[in-house]
Amino acid sequence: MAKIYLDPGHGGSDPGAANGSRTEKADVLRMALAVGEKLQAQGVQVLYSRAKDQDKKLAVRTAEANEWGADYYLSIHRNSASASATGNEIWVIRTATEKTAAKAKTILDAVCGADGLRNRGVKYGAPNYDNFAVNRDTNCASALLELGFISNQSDNAVFDAKFDKIALRMAKALCEVVGVPYQTANAAGDVNGDGKLTTADAREALRAAVGLENLTDAQKKKADADGDGKVSTSDARELLRKATGLEK
Fold this sequence. Notes:
Blueprint: E1 3-8, E2 18-19, E3 22-23, H1 24-41, E4 45-48, H2 58-68, E5 72-79, E6 88-92, H3 98-115, E7 119-124, H4 133-136, E8 141-149, H5 153-161, H6 163-177, H7 199-209, H8 217-223, H9 233-243
Parallel strand pairs: 1-4, 1-5, 5-8, 6-7
Antiparallel strand pairs: 2-3, 6-8
Helix pairs in contact: 1-6, 3-6, 7-9
């Protein structure tokens, strides 16, 4: 069974980057737990560096992952710079093999496809020194993911609005990275493929109906609630009624 170590960065007395009352440590913990839940539903073993707001040294995190025998290590962060800086990026060790870099690219491309932010690419080493400790000290392939800029209000809005979609795409990418086929329920109306019909599915159908989002053929079939061969606002309305229990 595949093992993935999820490391929400910072924690406890270390808030990471901040924007007003918003902290990096809180955002990444929420995302790690959401991704981990989806991975576990696929039969992947998940170990979190922290599942609550707590201090934990980097050396302890990497040693724990190594002792556990993780197949992949993903450290999740949020970037910070000027208020105009935007996008997602992912870091691997400076001496990363093509295979390790390709795995990181799979994750980054999935995130950018979910949130629509700028793809800043796979980067090697660390910004101002040799390597991030989480990449340097892990025995397995690893990466450090920066999920948008917490210093950018627009990136924060996207993080919140597309949180579920980002978590789902990340989980699917991580399954691909460790060779686990991601199984999705084929439920009618389950546009985002998370195995259940929710208001998020109705929202995606509505965005597709008004031209704000492109769906795959499989997604269009699930979103076509009235079976007329196209996705319209009436389909979104029907999915919303079903998701909220107003219609069977």
